[in-house]
Amino acid sequence: MTTTRPNFGQRLADAVAARGALCVGIDPHPALIQAWGLDESPGSLERFAMTAVEALAGEVAVLKPQSAFFELYGAAGIAVLERVIVEARAAGALVILDAKRGDIGSTMTAYANAYLADTSPLAADALTVSPYLGYGSLAPAIGIAEQTGRGVFVLARTSNPEGQELQKSRDAVSRPVAQSIVDAASDTNAGAEPMGYVGVVAGATMKPGELDLSKLNGPILAPGIGAQGAMVQSLRGVFGPALPNVLPATAREVLGSGPGIDDLRSAARRTRDDLATALAV
Ligand SMILES: O=c1ccn([C@@H]2O[C@H](COP(=O)(O)O)[C@@H](O)[C@H]2O)c(=O)[nH]1
């Protein structure tokens, strides 16, 4: 199936130009739900998630629901996730579904159809994917994303400390594994304008110079700001010349200001303003 949507790289660039470079995670952590004065039930999950959508979907460029926190509630949680995706997109935010999917060919095709096909009730604008079964195993998702004007974000150098041992280990040509993922994504994105639809995940917690992102020509999703310790002021040093392609992401830093709609919105605006200052050329 083909679509008339522009490619995801263009759509993301437009959204960032209009609303600023910020992705807010919708992560209904049990601890946050409790801090908002709610109990642990599907009704509370819905209240939490839809409050976040109401506060933020008309304000920030990108929202990133974390699938795991919805899956926790079974079918009821998936129903809420479906509503989050539909209503956030209707309010003008791009939605990256953080589900980190990855599998062999036919199963990967099913994941790709579940989250990236026009006909799916759970279709987001982009999906996080894991290349642990090989970058080539992601071909079904990359193909459907291209056809439908959607994107994928391939895990390269994740923000968690446990990722380092594997992602910094060397491949057969002595390249760090994380760099080999970035290079494969760069090949897919070559020639796209303003950038391609295959992004990578590279944590804001990285040290400067860990990855060469200069040829990626695609978006860089950078989680880790706030609760995980990365600071907005460090982004320039960490990402260097790739900074214009960086989409900084944070969840708890903003959601911790809830449950008030105005408080959530103010927290997102504050973070976006800080980022605008830090990213300004
Ligand atoms: O490398 C990665 C990839 C994904 N994540 C996800 O982002 C959010 C981070 O939440 P915070 O509250 O801002 O720490 C969460 O859903 C992670 O699963 C990541 O942190 N690092």
From TrEMBL:
One of the record's GO molecular function terms: orotidine-5'-phosphate decarboxylase activity
Top-level taxonomic group: Bacteria
Pfam family, one: OMPdecase
Matching CDD domains: OMP_decarboxylase_like (cd04725)
Enzyme Commission number: 4.1.1.23
Record field: catalytic activity: orotidine 5'-phosphate + H(+) = UMP + CO2
PROSITE patterns, A to Z: OMPDECASE
Catalytic residues in the record: 100 (proton donor)
Xref: InterPro entries: Aldolase_TIM, OMPdecase_AS, OMPdecase_type-2, OMPdeCOase_dom, RibuloseP-bd_barrel
Family in the record: Belongs to the OMP decarboxylase family. Type 2 subfamily.
Descriptive protein name: Orotidine 5'-phosphate decarboxylase
Species name: Allosaccharopolyspora coralli
Taxonomic lineage of the native organism: Bacteria, Bacillati, Actinomycetota, Actinomycetes, Pseudonocardiales
Gene symbol of the encoding locus: pyrF
